[in-house]
Structures are given as structure tokens and as C-alpha cells.
Amino acid sequence: SSQPWTKAECQVLINFIIENHLAGQPMHKHIWKACLESSS
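C-alpha cells predicted for Myb-like domain-containing protein:
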């Protein structure tokens, strides 16, 4: 059972993805999208 991520956790993840240039990878796009949806 996974808890919804907070906006702070989401921002950390997104910053990590951007800094590591992973935003174009399908898996990371999925994680990013799921994160934004769960934190809204």
C-alpha cells in the first residue's frame, strides 16, 4: 500500500529527474505524472 506523495517529495523527485536528464525516459515520465496526480 503506497501513500500519496506530498508536494515536497514530488518536487525532490522532479528535481532529481531534471538534474539527471531523465525526463525523456518513459519510466520517469510515468513516475512524474503519477507523482503530480497523487500530490494534487
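The chain has a mean pLDDT of 80.
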